[in-house]
Amino acid sequence: MSAALAALGQLVGGLGTAVLALVGLGCLVLTAAASLAGVGLLFAPAVLRGLHALAGRERTRLARHGLDIVPPEPPPTRLRPALADATTRRETRWLLVHATFGLLLGLLGLLLPVVAVRDTAFPLLWPFAPEGSTSTSLGFGTADSWAEASVVSLLGVGWIAIVLGLGPGMARLQARPALRLLAAGPDTDLSLRVAELTATRAAALDAHAVELRRIERSLHDGTQNRLVTVTVLLGAARRMVARDPAGADEVLERAQSAAEQALAELRAVARGILPPVLSDRGLAGALSGLAANCAVPCRTDVDLPERCAASVEATAYFVVAEALTNIAKHSGATRATVTVRGRGGRLKLRVEDDGSGGADEAGGSGLSGIRRRIAAHDGVLRLTSPRGGPTLLEVDLPCGS
Question: Is residue 345 within a helix (H) or strand (E), and if so which, with residue range?
Answer without folding.
Answer: none
